[in-house]
Target: Flp pilus assembly protein, pilin Flp
Amino acid sequence: MSIFFKAFANEDEGAVTIDWVVLTAALVGLTISAMALFVSAAGTPEEAYHTNMNAAVTFVGTLN
Model:
């Protein structure tokens, strides 16, 4: 039985595949995290429109 475990521990077939899978999963996770960050920071176009219109109304109100 110990011969089996020694042979299993010495095998390195598929190690590169595992490395690529882990690296790809990390890259996908980082990409999703970055996209979520940018999407939440962007808000909606309606929010931006109302914010800009309120700022313009306030500015015009100070000109009178």
